[in-house]
TrEMBL record:
UniProt KW Transcription regulation keyword: yes
SUPFAM superfamilies named in the record: Leucine zipper domain
InterPro entries: bZIP, bZIP_sf, Hac1/HY5
Taxonomic superkingdom: Eukaryota
A GO CC term assigned to this protein in UniProt: nucleus
The protein's name: Transcription factor HY5
């Protein structure tokens, strides 16, 4: 049966010690009831797990990271391009609306001026 510490431990993916996990828990149980020896044993095992990684595994991990980074960068560029395209469409819409409003303003100002002139002429 696994101890509470073994249950809480997060396994490192892709890394297994030779001999499987069952012998590891047996070795840890034989190390003592707990305390510093067990902590040192866990630390030694964790550091030995890191040493197990071969240069080929490191290269594979590096290449996977580079590929993820390239994909992420490409997605960021595509999002930026879509964002800029959207902004350009909005700019054109706003410019069109602005010119329509300027034209309407001019028309209303002319109409207002004519009405004032008519009002001025009728009062005289």
């Amino acid at each position: 049966m696994e101890s509470d510490e073994e249950i809480r431990r997060v396994p490192e993916l892709g890394l297994e010690l030779p001999g499987g996990g069952a012998s590891t828990s047996g070795r840890e149980a034989g190390a003592g009831a707990g305390g510093p020896e067990r902590a040192q044993s866990s630390t030694a095992q964790a550091s030995s797990r890191r040493r197990v990684r071969s240069p080929a595994d490191k290269e594979h991990k590096r290449l996977k990271r580079l590929l993820r980074n390239r994909v992420s960068a490409q997605q960021a560029r595509e999002r930026k391009k879509a964002y800029l395209t959207d902004l350009e469409v909005k700019v054109k819409e706003l410019e069109k609306k602005n010119s329509e409003m300027e034209e309407r303003l001019s028309t209303l100002q002319n109409e207002n001026q004519m009405l004032r002139q008519i009002l001025k002429n009728t009062t005289l």
